[in-house]
Each structure stands twice: as C-alpha cells, then as structure tokens.
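Tutorial, part two.
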Amino acid sequence: MKFSIPQKLVTVSILGAAALAFSGASSAAVNADAAAALAKKSDCLKCHAIDKDKKASSFKKVAEKYKGKADAEAKLVDSLTKAPKVKQADGTEEEHKVVATKDMAEIKNLIGWILAQ
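Running the prediction step on this input gives:
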C-alpha cells in the first residue's frame, strides 16, 4: 500500500506527537529521593509522616484529600510557599512552614511525591 505525501505527513505527525507525549510523561516522573531529602531539610517530617498522623495529617491523607482535584498542585504550592494558617490534626491552628527552596521544579517534585502516597 502506497501513501501519498499528505498521508505520510499525517502518519509522521501522529507518531511524533505520541513520542513527545510519552517523553513528557517520563520527564515528569517524581524523584522520590530528592523529594524525601527536601521534606527532611524543610522539617516537613517534624509534623507529617507518610502513613500516620502526627501533629499534622499524614501525606497519605493529604494525597486522599486532593485526589482527582485539578487545583491540587496549585493549593499545595501555596501551602508550601506562602506560610498560610493551617489546622493541625490535633485541632490547633498555626502557620505552615515554608519549604526550604525557591526552585519551583523541586517544589513540584515534592508535591508530586506527596500526592503519590
């Protein structure tokens, strides 16, 4: 079967778009070691644990709260960078600590790690 030039261009375009989509997905993978290191450096683990409540909700509960919500990343970016008042698991309220980096890629990696719990 012979393809005309426009058909070949369409086929190549579709294959190129698919390759780009898959390469973007792999480059967006979470670096768990870097995220855990940033969480430790930022004292996140002082109040949070991965699978149990401490002073604050576990990361698993945070992930459940935001699961399927389109604004999850934006809300967590605000929480990690703007030090808002937050309600603790024990009912008290205090200012959330700011994450120990200004690098948005590192912050988004940390958020991806939290949401993956």
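Residues 15-27 have pLDDT under 50 and may be disordered. In part three we will examine how such features are distributed along the chain.
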